[in-house]
């Protein structure tokens, strides 16, 4: 097995009359030796230096593994007061992947605040739901049977023949992956599509009666789907690459928390601390699909505190707008505008031109935006209103370009797995890295 370090870059670009999310792979290089924080940091810095983008970075998104979290406390050492000695960390050490102690977490978080490092939301949900499933002792026997049933279906040709004879060749039960909790959800959904009595009859006929589900276990699986379905939706929603994802984080957390509040007697899962950076609040507010509507139904506090939350979000946006505010453009005379239209097409003068905002304060723009937001697609909305809301537009394209998860890098590794097939096992690391680079950056 070969280890690689992948780095992708994400930004939002205005092209003619469109606003598009852009993604490129910067590098997917072979990573030999121990996976210590300092070595990860060195490679990351080398990639940033190669493209000369270190000063342009706003946020760094990575998973929550201890070495990755520590890596960005020693990254950009000129800003770091002290370095951690991670020489003893090794990727094969199981302790490496455990959560940090509370004291270490506070130290790491304080350092990361300077680097604007964000946790991968999908990985955070993985940890939350994974811990919840481990603590759900009553469902463990049902999930264990399901896992064995899926394994049997993929390894035993005898059972496979009996199974397909009853249910058809296009029916099956997918295998679960330990690092993807939603694969367990898909597995449970798949088995529930079968008739319980027929499935038990097939298992008994094949000599595996011990894997049959009792009515109680079958009902527990149904309840599990009802509980985890919203978590699956949130995971899928925040792992996109061609769509804005970060704006869905805060509404997802609030909706999940509201969902769990209704099931408090059945489940015990904590979502506290999933959102720690203000960029999530700004992103949710600047996406017209959500705006500030998420505050009213699912923020479980009184109206005065809700008003304070809304005001605080507005202040954060206005603060960023003030920092990025550009000089007020000088109005162009109508005659000059008409002259500029020449050469743009036969009927260019007939087209309705978007009004250019020449001095509306950001606060007024924000008020107009809140009135205009009615669930529109964010990319289309900001493409149409970039000139009427110029100050907010500058904040929006910077905030909404941030991905909610590190899923784009995971897809890079998937491409690498497809390229490096068994019959290509002798492929050199450099050739593999170049092929992945070309595949992921193909226009």
TrEMBL record:
Keywords of the record: Metal-binding, Nucleus, Zinc, Zinc-finger
InterPro entries linked: HATC_C_dom, RNaseH-like_sf, ZnF_BED_domain_contain
SUPFAM superfamilies assigned to the protein according to its UniProt record, in alphabetical order: Ribonuclease H-like
Cell location: Nucleus
Zinc-finger in keyword set: yes
Superkingdom of source: Eukaryota
Record carries keyword Repeat: no
Lineage of the organism: Eukaryota, Metazoa, Chordata, Craniata, Vertebrata
GO cellular component: nucleus
Start and end residues of each HAT C-terminal dimerisation domain: 375-439
Record's protein name: HAT C-terminal dimerisation domain-containing protein
GO molecular function terms noted in the UniProt entry: zinc ion binding
Organism: Umbra pygmaea (Eastern mudminnow)
């Amino acid at each position: 097995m070969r280890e690689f370090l992948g780095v992708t870059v994400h930004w939002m670009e205005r092209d003619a009359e469109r606003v598009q999310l852009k993604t490129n792979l910067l590098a997917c290089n072979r990573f030999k030796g121990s996976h210590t924080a300092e070595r990860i940091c060195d490679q990351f810095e080398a990639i940033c230096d190669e493209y000369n983008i270190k000063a342009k970075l706003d946020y760094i998104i990575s998973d929550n593994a201890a070495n990755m979290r520590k890596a960005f406390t020693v990254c950009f050492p000129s800003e770091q007061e002290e370095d951690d000695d991670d020489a003893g960390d090794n990727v094969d050490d199981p302790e490496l992947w455990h959560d940090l102690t509370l004291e270490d977490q506070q130290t790491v978080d304080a350092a990361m605040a300077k680097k604007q490092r964000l946790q991968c939301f999908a990985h955070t949900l993985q940890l939350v739901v994974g811990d919840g499933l481990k603590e759900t002792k009553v469902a463990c026997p049902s999930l264990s049977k399901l896992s064995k049933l899926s394994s049997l279906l993929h390894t035993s040709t005898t059972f496979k023949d009996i199974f397909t004879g009853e249910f058809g060749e296009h029916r099956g039960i997918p295998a679960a992956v330990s690092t993807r909790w939603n694969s367990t959800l898909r597995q449970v959904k798949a088995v529930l599509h079968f008739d319980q009595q027929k499935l038990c009859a097939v298992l008994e006929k094949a000599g595996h009666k011990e894997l049959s589900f009792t009515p109680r276990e079958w009902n527990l699986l149904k309840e599990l789907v009802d509980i985890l379905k919203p978590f699956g939706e949130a995971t899928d929603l925040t792992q996109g690459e061609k769509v804005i994802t970060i704006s869905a984080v805060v509404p997802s957390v609030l909706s999940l928390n509201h969902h769990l509040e209704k099931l408090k007697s059945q489940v015990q899962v904590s979502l506290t601390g999933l959102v720690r950076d203000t960029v999530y609040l700004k992103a949710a507010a600047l996406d017209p699909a959500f705006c500030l509507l998420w505050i009213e139904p699912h923020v479980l506090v009184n109206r005065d505190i809700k008003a304070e939350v809304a005001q605080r979000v507005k202040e954060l946006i206005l603060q960023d707008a003030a920092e990025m505010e550009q000089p007020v453009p000088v109005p162009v005379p109508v005659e000059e505008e008409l002259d500029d239209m020449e050469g743009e097409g036969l009927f260019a003068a007939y087209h309705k031109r978007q009004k250019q905002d020449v001095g509306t304060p950001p606060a007024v723009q924000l008020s107009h935006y809140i009135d205009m937001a009615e669930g529109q697609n964010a990319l289309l909305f900001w493409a149409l209103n970039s000139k009427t809301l110029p100050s907010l537009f500058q904040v929006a394209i910077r905030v909404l370009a941030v991905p909610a998860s590190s899923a784009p890098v995971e897809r890079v590794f998937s491409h690498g797995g497809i390229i490096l097939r068994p019959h290509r096992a002798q492929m050199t690391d450099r050739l593999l890295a170049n092929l992945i680079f070309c595949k992921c950056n193909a226009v």
